[in-house]
Amino acid sequence: PKSIICRLVEGAFATGDTAIDVRHGRFDALLADLAAGRLHVVVADQKPSQGTSLRLHAHALGETDLLMFGSPAACNKLEGKFPQNLAGAPMLLPRLGTRLRQDIDAWLNARDLRVRVIGEFDDAGTLRAFGLRGWGLFPVRAALAAEVSDLGTAKRVGKLDGLVETYFAITRDRTIRHPGIARMVERARARLDKD
Protein backbone atom coordinates (compact mmCIF):
# COMPACT_ATOMS: atom_id res chain seq x y z
CA PRO A 1 0.00 0.00 0.00
CA LYS A 2 1.07 3.53 -0.75
CA SER A 3 1.10 4.69 2.88
CA ILE A 4 3.50 1.89 3.86
CA ILE A 5 5.72 2.61 0.86
CA CYS A 6 5.90 6.27 1.90
CA ARG A 7 7.05 5.27 5.38
CA LEU A 8 9.59 2.79 4.05
CA VAL A 9 11.26 5.03 1.46
CA GLU A 10 11.48 8.18 3.56
CA GLY A 11 14.89 7.01 4.85
CA ALA A 12 16.32 7.74 1.41
CA PHE A 13 15.67 11.45 2.06
CA ALA A 14 17.64 11.55 5.32
CA THR A 15 20.45 13.74 3.98
CA GLY A 16 18.38 15.73 1.50
CA ASP A 17 20.65 14.80 -1.42
CA THR A 18 18.45 12.11 -2.92
CA ALA A 19 15.55 12.56 -5.31
CA ILE A 20 13.23 9.64 -5.90
CA ASP A 21 10.95 8.56 -8.71
CA VAL A 22 8.12 6.48 -7.26
CA ARG A 23 6.20 4.22 -9.63
CA HIS A 24 3.24 1.96 -9.08
CA GLY A 25 2.68 -0.97 -11.39
CA ARG A 26 2.45 -4.69 -11.93
CA PHE A 27 5.07 -6.57 -9.94
CA ASP A 28 6.47 -8.45 -12.95
CA ALA A 29 6.77 -5.24 -15.01
CA LEU A 30 8.57 -3.44 -12.17
CA LEU A 31 10.99 -6.36 -11.82
CA ALA A 32 11.68 -6.30 -15.57
CA ASP A 33 12.44 -2.55 -15.35
CA LEU A 34 14.72 -3.21 -12.37
CA ALA A 35 16.59 -5.99 -14.20
CA ALA A 36 17.01 -3.72 -17.24
CA GLY A 37 18.53 -0.96 -15.09
CA ARG A 38 15.60 1.46 -15.41
CA LEU A 39 14.99 1.30 -11.65
CA HIS A 40 17.37 1.10 -8.68
CA VAL A 41 15.04 -0.71 -6.28
CA VAL A 42 11.56 -2.21 -6.06
CA VAL A 43 9.84 -2.24 -2.66
CA ALA A 44 7.25 -5.01 -2.46
CA ASP A 45 5.42 -7.40 -0.17
CA GLN A 46 6.78 -10.42 -2.04
CA LYS A 47 10.05 -11.78 -3.37
CA PRO A 48 10.69 -12.47 -7.05
CA SER A 49 9.65 -16.05 -7.86
CA GLN A 50 12.39 -18.68 -7.70
CA GLY A 51 11.88 -19.70 -11.32
CA THR A 52 12.55 -16.27 -12.79
CA SER A 53 15.53 -15.78 -15.09
CA LEU A 54 16.06 -12.29 -13.68
CA ARG A 55 19.07 -11.98 -11.40
CA LEU A 56 17.55 -10.04 -8.54
CA HIS A 57 18.07 -10.07 -4.79
CA ALA A 58 15.41 -9.54 -2.12
CA HIS A 59 16.56 -7.79 1.06
CA ALA A 60 14.10 -8.26 3.94
CA LEU A 61 12.96 -4.96 5.44
CA GLY A 62 10.72 -6.41 8.12
CA GLU A 63 7.14 -7.33 8.73
CA THR A 64 3.99 -5.94 10.23
CA ASP A 65 1.02 -7.64 11.88
CA LEU A 66 -2.50 -7.25 10.57
CA LEU A 67 -5.19 -5.75 12.77
CA MET A 68 -8.92 -5.26 12.39
CA PHE A 69 -10.36 -1.78 12.97
CA GLY A 70 -13.84 -0.32 12.85
CA SER A 71 -15.71 2.89 13.51
CA PRO A 72 -17.07 3.25 17.05
CA ALA A 73 -20.60 2.60 15.71
CA ALA A 74 -19.50 -0.58 13.91
CA CYS A 75 -17.57 -1.77 16.97
CA ASN A 76 -20.57 -1.18 19.27
CA LYS A 77 -22.59 -3.67 17.20
CA LEU A 78 -20.07 -6.47 17.80
CA GLU A 79 -21.07 -9.06 20.37
CA GLY A 80 -18.73 -11.36 22.25
CA LYS A 81 -14.98 -11.75 22.21
CA PHE A 82 -12.60 -11.33 19.31
CA PRO A 83 -12.37 -13.07 16.87
CA GLN A 84 -15.77 -14.76 17.26
CA ASN A 85 -17.43 -11.33 17.25
CA LEU A 86 -16.48 -11.00 13.57
CA ALA A 87 -19.10 -13.60 12.56
CA GLY A 88 -21.66 -11.86 10.36
CA ALA A 89 -19.96 -8.47 10.74
CA PRO A 90 -19.93 -6.07 7.77
CA MET A 91 -16.41 -6.01 6.39
CA LEU A 92 -14.39 -4.06 3.85
CA LEU A 93 -11.65 -6.17 2.28
CA PRO A 94 -9.02 -6.10 -0.45
CA ARG A 95 -10.36 -7.41 -3.74
CA LEU A 96 -10.46 -11.13 -4.46
CA GLY A 97 -7.26 -12.56 -5.89
CA THR A 98 -4.88 -10.36 -3.92
CA ARG A 99 -2.41 -11.98 -1.55
CA LEU A 100 -3.81 -10.08 1.44
CA ARG A 101 -7.38 -11.10 0.64
CA GLN A 102 -6.35 -14.75 0.30
CA ASP A 103 -4.58 -14.56 3.67
CA ILE A 104 -7.56 -12.92 5.40
CA ASP A 105 -10.02 -15.39 3.85
CA ALA A 106 -7.84 -18.33 4.98
CA TRP A 107 -7.60 -16.83 8.48
CA LEU A 108 -11.39 -16.44 8.72
CA ASN A 109 -12.03 -19.92 7.27
CA ALA A 110 -9.59 -21.54 9.73
CA ARG A 111 -11.75 -20.10 12.53
CA ASP A 112 -15.00 -21.00 10.79
CA LEU A 113 -15.99 -17.33 10.66
CA ARG A 114 -18.31 -16.02 7.95
CA VAL A 115 -18.37 -12.27 7.51
CA ARG A 116 -20.53 -10.05 5.35
CA VAL A 117 -18.27 -8.52 2.70
CA ILE A 118 -19.86 -5.20 1.81
CA GLY A 119 -16.97 -3.73 -0.16
CA GLU A 120 -13.89 -4.89 -2.05
CA PHE A 121 -11.08 -2.48 -2.96
CA ASP A 122 -7.97 -2.38 -5.14
CA ASP A 123 -6.43 0.37 -3.04
CA ALA A 124 -5.75 0.14 0.71
CA GLY A 125 -6.15 3.90 1.17
CA THR A 126 -9.62 3.88 -0.38
CA LEU A 127 -10.57 0.83 1.70
CA ARG A 128 -9.41 2.62 4.84
CA ALA A 129 -11.31 5.82 3.89
CA PHE A 130 -14.57 3.85 3.62
CA GLY A 131 -13.83 2.13 6.93
CA LEU A 132 -13.16 5.43 8.66
CA ARG A 133 -16.56 6.64 7.42
CA GLY A 134 -18.22 3.73 9.25
CA TRP A 135 -19.06 1.43 6.35
CA GLY A 136 -17.68 -1.66 8.10
CA LEU A 137 -14.73 -3.30 9.78
CA PHE A 138 -11.45 -3.09 7.88
CA PRO A 139 -7.90 -4.49 8.06
CA VAL A 140 -5.02 -2.20 8.99
CA ARG A 141 -1.32 -2.98 9.02
CA ALA A 142 0.12 -2.55 12.53
CA ALA A 143 2.76 -0.20 11.10
CA LEU A 144 -0.11 2.20 10.30
CA ALA A 145 -2.26 1.58 13.39
CA ALA A 146 -1.17 4.73 15.25
CA GLU A 147 -1.91 6.83 12.18
CA VAL A 148 -5.42 5.35 11.94
CA SER A 149 -6.08 5.57 15.70
CA ASP A 150 -4.91 9.19 15.82
CA LEU A 151 -7.72 10.17 13.45
CA GLY A 152 -10.16 9.38 16.25
CA THR A 153 -12.78 7.86 13.96
CA ALA A 154 -11.79 4.20 14.32
CA LYS A 155 -10.72 1.84 17.03
CA ARG A 156 -8.90 -1.45 17.10
CA VAL A 157 -11.10 -4.55 17.22
CA GLY A 158 -8.32 -7.13 17.43
CA LYS A 159 -5.18 -8.67 15.97
CA LEU A 160 -5.39 -11.27 13.22
CA ASP A 161 -2.98 -13.64 14.99
CA GLY A 162 -0.50 -15.26 12.66
CA LEU A 163 -1.13 -12.89 9.76
CA VAL A 164 1.85 -10.73 8.87
CA GLU A 165 2.91 -8.84 5.81
CA THR A 166 6.62 -8.93 4.98
CA TYR A 167 8.33 -6.24 2.91
CA PHE A 168 11.40 -6.48 0.71
CA ALA A 169 13.75 -4.12 -1.10
CA ILE A 170 14.58 -5.89 -4.36
CA THR A 171 17.80 -4.89 -6.11
CA ARG A 172 20.09 -6.18 -8.84
CA ASP A 173 22.99 -6.43 -6.41
CA ARG A 174 23.41 -8.85 -3.54
CA THR A 175 25.14 -6.04 -1.61
CA ILE A 176 23.43 -2.66 -1.56
CA ARG A 177 25.90 -0.03 -2.74
CA HIS A 178 23.64 2.94 -3.48
CA PRO A 179 23.78 5.22 -0.39
CA GLY A 180 20.14 6.33 -0.67
CA ILE A 181 18.91 2.75 -0.92
CA ALA A 182 21.18 1.70 1.97
CA ARG A 183 19.69 4.50 4.13
CA MET A 184 16.18 3.52 3.08
CA VAL A 185 16.77 -0.14 4.00
CA GLU A 186 18.34 0.76 7.35
CA ARG A 187 15.52 3.14 8.33
CA ALA A 188 12.78 0.83 7.06
CA ARG A 189 14.16 -2.05 9.13
CA ALA A 190 14.31 0.15 12.23
CA ARG A 191 10.78 1.45 11.66
CA LEU A 192 9.22 -1.98 11.08
CA ASP A 193 11.06 -3.44 14.10
CA LYS A 194 9.65 -0.61 16.23
CA ASP A 195 6.08 -1.06 14.98
Bin the strand percentage: 25-35%
- State the end-to-end CA separation: 16 Å
CATH class of the largest domain, named Alpha Beta
**Class by alpha and beta content:** alpha+beta
Shape verdict: elongated
Order of strands in the sheet with most strands: 1-6-2-5
Count of discrete alpha- or pi-helical segments spanning 4 or more residues = 7
Describe the biggest sheet?
Answer: 4 strands, antiparallel
Strand element count: 6
Q: How many domain regions?
A: 2
Q: Could you state the CATH homologous superfamily of the largest domain?
A: Periplasmic binding protein-like II
Based on the structure given, which CATH architecture of the largest domain is correct?
Answer: 3-Layer(aba) Sandwich
Residue share in helix: 25-40%
Q: Spell the H/E element sequence.
A: HHEEHEHEHEHEH
The rounded Rg comes to: 18 Å
Would you identify the regions where 5 or more consecutive residues have pLDDT less than 50?
Answer: none
